[in-house]
Specification:
Layout: E1 2-9, H1 13-24, E2 29-32, E3 46-47, H2 61-79, E4 84-85, E5 89-92, H3 96-106, E6 131-134, E7 138-140, H4 142-155, E8 159-160, E9 173-174, E10 177-184, E11 202-213, E12 222-224, E13 228-231, E14 236-240, H5 254-267, E15 272-284, E16 291-294, E17 301-305, H6 311-328
Parallel strand pairs: 1-2, 1-10, 2-8, 5-12, 10-17
Antiparallel strand pairs: 3-7, 4-7, 5-6, 9-10, 11-14, 11-15, 12-13, 13-14, 16-17
Helix pairs in contact: 1-6, 2-6
Length: 343
């Protein structure tokens, strides 16, 4: 019988950032993650303190970004890389009204740290009303983050790339593994979990394209109009992603693909070739807060879910909150506590 402090089920941002907390605190653990890419692994990796549709910010934005930066430096100590790409988002304005709204919001206490009031005229793309830069925004190198973290877990015998069978959990053991705690970080897969299937997580399907541009961009930042555009390794670019809370099929949706083609064509007036179309299902919650907590009948069974479109920030920040709750009995923030739904 192998003894561990934790079993983690799920290999997205929630599972990997929680694993980091265990590494930092010298806890023993195994993480179960099936082969195949999670929604986290096909995400854009955008780190953004501003909701770019209405130019607002969100709960704990600055604190989450600061914590992410310090966490990625910790991860660098054992993977040898820092995966944060410090290239700001530049939001292309649709019209004069958006320019004026941006300037107005940039003078408020909440948005002043994030909205740069000096606009830029960009090359290669159509931007007759210029673009505004988002301070403190960046993006994660998603592919390298997951590849390297997974390699580290494998080398240290923390990773089991296999299906997790709920039916064989018995008396705090799984197969020949005895555990003190188990944390389910399964994203939308939680709907198949008999312990937490009732939590109010909803799937929000998102598509993105990998494209080759006939005229490469000259900028070293992320562009945003309707969706995000930024360079990947080699000569391809990421463009996406869409939001569709009603589409459930596990295949490419032609409407979403066309939406992306039209969105890119709106500001990129040159030819481009689509190399790939990818999609994933984000685990979202109506109140846009993650869900953390324990099972009422199995107090050492925990759920960490509902990270939504801000998976990196929520996964990183609240992994620490959950760890402190489990190990040091620190009360969970009421805004993210699973128990908020039973009131």
């Amino acid at each position: 019988m192998k003894n561990v402090d934790y079993i983690i089920v799920g290999g997205g941002y929630a599972g990997f950032f929680f694993a980091h907390q265990l590494i930092q605190n010298n806890k023993t653990f195994l993480i179960f993650s099936e082969n195949g890419k999670s929604a986290s692994q096909v995400s854009a990796g955008i780190v953004n303190p501003v909701v770019l549709k209405k130019f607002t910010t969100f709960w704990l934005a600055q604190e989450q970004i600061s914590f992410l930066k310090s966490t990625l430096k910790e991860i660098e100590e054992y993977t040898g890389k820092n995966y944060l790409i410090n290239e700001n988002i530049h939001r292309i304005f649709h019209d004069k009204k958006e320019q004026e709204l941006w300037l107005s919001k940039s003078e408020t206490e909440q948005l002043e740290p994030f909205l740069n009031p000096e606009f830029k005229n960009l090359e290669t793309v159509l931007n007759p009303f210029a673009a505004g830069s988002v301070n403190l925004s960046a993006r994660l190198n998603v592919e390298e983050f997951f590849n390297d973290f997974k390699a580290f877990l494998k080398e240290n015998n923390h990773l089991r790339e296999q299906h997790f069978d709920y039916s064989i959990i018995a008396d705090n053991s799984y197969e020949q593994i005895s555990f003190k705690h188990i944390v389910f970080c399964e994203g939308i897969g939680v709907k198949n979990n008999p312990f937490f299937s009732e939590i109010p997580v909803m799937a929000n399907k998102g598509h993105h394209l990998k494209v080759q541009l006939s005229k490469p961009l000259t900028n070293s930042f992320t562009l945003k109009k309707k969706h995000f555009l930024f360079p990947l390794n080699g000569d391809s670019y990421y463009y996406g992603g869409t939001y569709d809370p009603n589409e459930r099929t596990n295949e490419i949706d032609d409407f979403a693909k066309q939406q992306l083609i039209e969105g890119l064509s709106e500001f990129y007036p040159h030819d481009f070739e689509i190399n790939e179309v990818n999609f994933g299902f984000r685990p979202t919650v109506r109140d846009r807060r993650p869900i953390l907590g324990s099972h009422p009948e199995h107090p050492n069974f925990y759920v960490f879910n509902g990270l939504g479109a801000r998976g990196i920030l929520n996964g990183c920040f609240f992994s620490k909150e959950l760890y402190e709750h489990i190990e040091n009995q620190k009360p969970l923030m009421p805004e993210v506590d699973l128990n908020r739904f039973s009131k």
